[in-house]
Specification:
By secondary structure, this protein is mostly helical. The protein has four helices and three strands. A hairpin with a 2-residue loop joins strand 2 (about 110-115) and strand 3.
């Protein structure tokens, strides 16, 4: 199996899991956070929705600065529909990028910067794998927020207390 095919399969399964989580987004709680050091719910949900776009960036760009000098995060109200649309676009861009690349290209180096400084450098396929892991990590964080807010926690890799599906 080609690496691109494996990543396309991973993208499809992670899309469905992430969709289930974002469908439970409690609207009107954008600024809520469980602890003063935690990120606000709206920012977390937006991050989860756009992480698939990182796959496209890793394929189409040689580097990306996650915290360019002067970056200011804008507060935005999020809705379930808006988050799902963001995720659909991000996932579509990722599918297009993966369909248009080769395993050989995914073995070339890619760099992540923060404020202009290189913080990670690895083969593109390694960075894509890390993007999927990052998505799962933050999606798990979202499920904790959902539980604390009394929202439904969806089944993701197996049943939850609220959703008895086994997937």
């Amino acid at each position: 199996m080609k690496i691109t095919e494996m990543f396309l399969g991973e993208l499809a399964s992670e899309f469905e899991r992430t969709k289930r989580a974002l469908e439970q987004y409690p609207e009107g709680q954008d600024e809520w956070k469980p602890h003063e050091k935690s990120m606000p719910l709206g920012y977390l949900a937006s991050l989860i929705a756009i992480i698939p776009s990182w796959v496209a960036m890793i394929v189409t760009q040689d580097e990306f600065d996650v915290a360019p000098v002067g970056l200011k995060h804008e507060a935005a109200t999020r809705t379930r529909v808006g988050l799902l649309q963001m995720m659909e676009k991000a996932s579509s861009d990722a599918r297009t990028a993966l369909d248009g690349t080769t395993d050989e290209f995914l073995d070339t180096p890619w760099r992540m910067l923060a404020g202009g400084a290189v913080v990670m450098k690895a083969a593109r396929h390694v960075m894509i794998r890390d993007a999927f892991n990052h998505l799962a990590h933050h999606r798990g964080q979202l499920t904790v927020y959902l539980r604390l807010l009394g929202a439904t926690v969806p089944a993701l890799y197996g049943p939850s207390a609220d959703d008895k599906r086994f997937l």
